[in-house]
Amino acid sequence: MKQAIQQISEPVKAAIEQFKTAYQAALQSDNALIRQMVDHVNQSSGKQMRPLLVLLCAQLYGDITPATLHAAASIELLHVASLIHDDVIDESNLRRGEPSLLAKFKSKTAVLGGDFFLSASLSEAALTGHIDIVSTISDMGKALVKGELLQLSGSKDAIYNQNYYFGVIKAKTAALFCTCAKLGALSTLKELDDKAQRLIEMSENLGICFQLKDDVFDYQEGGHIGKPVGNDIQEGKMTLPLLYVYEQASNSEKEEILQAFNSKDIAYIQQLVVEKGGMDYTQQQITYYKEKALQCLQDFEDTPTRKAIEQFIALVADRQK
Amino acid sequence: MKQAIQQISEPVKAAIEQFKTAYQAALQSDNALIRQMVDHVNQSSGKQMRPLLVLLCAQLYGDITPATLHAAASIELLHVASLIHDDVIDESNLRRGEPSLLAKFKSKTAVLGGDFFLSASLSEAALTGHIDIVSTISDMGKALVKGELLQLSGSKDAIYNQNYYFGVIKAKTAALFCTCAKLGALSTLKELDDKAQRLIEMSENLGICFQLKDDVFDYQEGGHIGKPVGNDIQEGKMTLPLLYVYEQASNSEKEEILQAFNSKDIAYIQQLVVEKGGMDYTQQQITYYKEKALQCLQDFEDTPTRKAIEQFIALVADRQK
After folding, report:
1. Which chain B residues touch A150 with a CB distance below 8 Å?
2. CA separation for the pair A190, B45 (Å, rounded)
3. Are B50 and B296 in contact (CB under 8 A)?
């Protein structure tokens, strides 16, 4: 995985180092507790796929500028802030295989930790010097709140259908990927034209792939996302593999599924989802969105950067862990 | 109180209505739960003294522009966001005499409610069109986190001295007031000169007055801030009236005070603070900072706007509830 990302990063290698410098600079603080929280979060900093997407999109659309680097830092900081608050909300003690900020510090402190990352995201947006980029980040902040609330309501009100599910992932993961493409294009300082729209569309499809793949991993031992298997079920989230099976089921089967889901019988549900084709169906959907994402790149010149984005899409869709 | 604020608002009356429109527009959402939260928060919207300060400072320094209105909305939204998260952190069920967002919704939802107000603050900052204003808001966001963490650490580590206390209120309340003056001046699109510095200094002193007065009210029945008497003690916060008495006390008296403080013996502490001069001392400090704030206005022309700011300072320092 790491090697594949390195290869994809090749066309924007120098820019990635500059992005990292901006990212770290935004998190400086003279407060010891803030530094401890930042260090803890940075220890498991993830694959930073979103800033990579910003840089690649900028380079494909125009040229990487200093604004691109700050925009990449801003979106990654916003993403991390939302993960911190999501962990507080979901009472998740694991993040990327390590104790979450919530687990390490108290809930109170973790709320403030998320707020600090959110403010840092805003500083980086300001450093781009472009008001359109600031608005894009603030719109994304609102969208993430809405996405998380939709997800909470869905679990609470037991709304189990694909339509609702796709609404949630479009509002959360996919919207974040779209924003990466938009930021990349805006930061080149060119007007946004049809090609920018194609990049944004590509990113939406890529984001859906990414989320569906995460959902699949939740049913597999040794899944990559550093959460225990069945974590989604544990948190009361019915994702696509199970939703498909649920929608296909007879009324009496539906009752059985709900009983197992509500009593968090992970082993039973795992088996059912495999047997009844939930995994295969989700895999088909992943392939469908992967192809859609690749199609969006057709009008772009065949450069190493375009190739890198194609590899990015393939990696997201086909990764095995 | 309401009448006094109306009088102070007179020179910027039209602008206040425009600020309110911008504030409400920033909180629009197509999500029902977000709308419920916004409505709940708006029901007890407070005195909105910070946006009033932005408008008055802008008018004293230059001219109110559309950027002034959005900056005023942005700082008020940031302030409300921080109150929402503070209530989650302090587990406060009352805010301005009404159930807090935490009390009405669950802690999870209230965290997201705060995030929504924070994102709305950012949208309004972007609408000013001025990157310096966006940076000022993001710096303030970081400062509020730091202030709240300082306060939490102070309570946890039992740091009881005036120096630390003033550090906390400068980082929280006073910094927010300073930012109002800075936003007011920046939004006139004039360069910031010595006069802007005087306005910022005035606001810092005003902010300290404001906080000290709140601290006094916490010891008085029928205090204005819509929290029960002794709420600070309940939350483990030792504020100036008690800090003064504590610092003056002998070692054995200190032990007694700490015992009463830790066991939240509010009646005993209230009586002690009055008897040992803690209230008088705090009142002297309020008068000291009030005079300092008024002095900062000396170089400004004697206009109705300057007069309104002077009345603002007097109101904050002398209000009886």
Report:
1. 31
2. 42
3. no
The pLDDT confidence band at residue B237, using thresholds 50, 70 and 90, is: confident
Question: Using CA atoms, how far apart are residues A243 and A216, in angstroms rounded to an integer?
Answer: 12
Q: E-strand spans in B17-161? A: 94-95, 98-99
| Residue B242 neighbours by CB under 8 Å, 6+ apart | B233, B257, B261, B269, B272, B273, B278
- The token duo for A234 is 């544990």
On whether the CB atoms of residues B272 and B194 are closer than 8 A, the answer is no
Question: Helix, strand or coil for residue B95?
Answer: strand
Extract the tokens encoding B259: 């015992």
**pLDDT, tens digit, for every residue of A50-68?**
999 999 999 999 999 999 9
Compute φ and ψ for A95, nearest 5 degrees: -145, 120
A144 vs B31: CB contact, 8 Å cut-off?
no
Q: Does A123 touch chain B (CB under 8 A)?
A: yes
Span B15-49, pLDDT tens digits: 999 999 999 999 999 988 899 999 999 887 778 99
Vertex A58: Cα angle to A53 and A60 (nearest 5): 95
Q: Name the residue with tokens 């007007």.
A: A191
Q: What is the DSSP secondary-structure string of B177-203?
A: HHHHHHHHHHHTTSPP-HHHHHHHHHH
Q: Please tell me if residue A36 touches chain B, with a CB cutoff of 8 Å.
A: no
Q: Across-strand partners of B95?
A: B98
Alpha-carbon distance values, A251 to A114, A131, A247, A254, B185 (Å)? 43, 53, 10, 5, 66
pLDDT score, position B96: 59
Question: Helix or strand or coil: residue B61?
Answer: helix
Is the CB of B138 less than 8 angstroms away from the CB of A119?
yes
Domains in chain B with CATH codes: 2-318 (1.10.600.10)
A85 CB within 8 Å of a chain B CB:
yes
Length of chain B: 321
Query: How close B281 gets to chain A, by Cα (Å)?
Result: 30
Residue B97: what pLDDT? 64
Confidence of residue A226 (pLDDT cuts 50, 70, 90): low
| CA dihedral for A119, A309, A130, B80, sign (positive or negative) | negative
Coil, helix or strand for A64? coil
CA-nearest residue to B87 within chain A is A108
**Integer CA distances (angstroms), B28 to A118, A165, B35, B194, in order:** 21, 24, 7, 39
On whether ipTM exceeds 0.90, the answer is: no
pLDDT digits (tens, 9 = 90+) for A277-302: 999 999 999 999 999 999 999 999 99
